[in-house]
Design goal:
Elements: E1 2-4, E2 7-8, E3 14-18, E4 21-25, E5 33-41, E6 45-55, H1 81-100, E7 109-111, E8 121-127, E9 130-134, E10 141-143, H2 152-164, E11 169-176, E12 180-186, H3 194-204, E13 208-215, E14 218-223, E15 228-231, E16 234-237, H4 251-262, E17 266-272, H5 280-285, E18 287-294, H6 297-309, E19 315-319, H7 322-328, E20 335-338, H8 347-355, E21 360-365, H9 368-380, E22 383-391, E23 401-408
Parallel strand pairs: 4-6, 7-22, 12-13, 17-18, 17-20, 18-19, 20-21
Antiparallel strand pairs: 1-5, 2-3, 3-4, 5-6, 8-9, 8-11, 9-10, 11-12, 13-14, 15-16, 21-23, 22-23
Helix pairs in contact: 1-9, 7-8, 8-9
Length: 409
Amino acid sequence: MQLRIEKLVYGGDGLARTEQGVIFVPRTAPGDVVDVEITHRKKDYASGRVVEMIAPSADRQEPACPNYMAAGCCHWEHIRYDRQLEYKEAIIRESLTRLARIEFAEPIATISGPDKAYRLRASFHVRDGRLGFVREHSNTIVPVDRCSALVPELNAFVSAANTGLDRAALGVDVVAGPAIAATIHFDANTERPWDRVRDRMFQAIPGLASLTFVIGSKHLRFDKHPAEIEVGGFRFGLNSNAFFQANRFLLEPFMKAVLGHAGSGHSKVLDLFSGSGFFSIPLASASRQLIGVETSRDAVRQAIENARVNAVWNVEFAAGNVDTILAGAEVDPDLVVLNPPRTGAGVKVAERVAGLKASRLVYVSCNPTTFAREAAVFLKNGYRLSGMTMVDQFPNTYHIELIARFDLE
């Protein structure tokens, strides 16, 4: 059938309305007139694929990444970048209205940067000795030689690793700053002379500073020299086993935006899902005391080291399930910061946070749908949504990051 695409939705697809219901079509843009074949049909919606472009939208551009069609990871690279930002703001507002019944009429500030060569970390899979990405909606590994989103150091890593990686490797997690930290996963039964493999990797891959082999449950870490990055006057160690913000151009603006929403002079700060301390350490510098809670033990170890390197002593970190720790802790914070994974903090955690009655909450979200669900919990418990900033961490994709400030009324 012939369709006109009305808008974009979270998840990346274009949406068209027909007499037969809503139809979602990937790789489209608002204003496209397309001939579509229906591929899946459900009770209240259908999915289709473009057979022919009848009339392209004025928002379209030619994709630059060689993996755009093969891997499908740059969902929106066919759309002009300025329009992507407008569509993402519209998705945030619609999520709040539709899922939380929140009408936020205030401006949403936007932080953005270059849309190419921005990404500091990546996860690859290995097939036949070559690095690749998993094709969207499949288990197929697509070999890659470069990616337009990756920083030059990571594209250099891909080129070198494709000639030096062991064929038994299952996957590679890499983070790049002034140096590269890599974690390479091997089959649990693999036996290798690991010192020799280490030496070959350090020799083959320029900039490789830290290397971890994961063999089943065993971790072998080798450090040639520290891999670290400086942001806003703070130094952070880079560890591919611990989460770190991905967009090199937005690190300092992102940090400053969170600090701006948080304000200063807090007596006690609770930082939930604190990672390796990217927000915790500058927040602690502007507060009397900070407690960070994080599920990943690797991230907590890195956060403790980052606090030591920056001589920030009024902070402590706890590793464990956030809900469990909150349920058993006696804390009385005046500021709570949350930065959960894409699945969100969860309604139960949101209820516990609201029950602490901190005067301010700052929620850093990478999913507007889970954010809207939990924002409704905060409003129900006496908070007001008083400010929002959109951070475009992942240009040319449908992913959306935002910072929201809630104040207790």
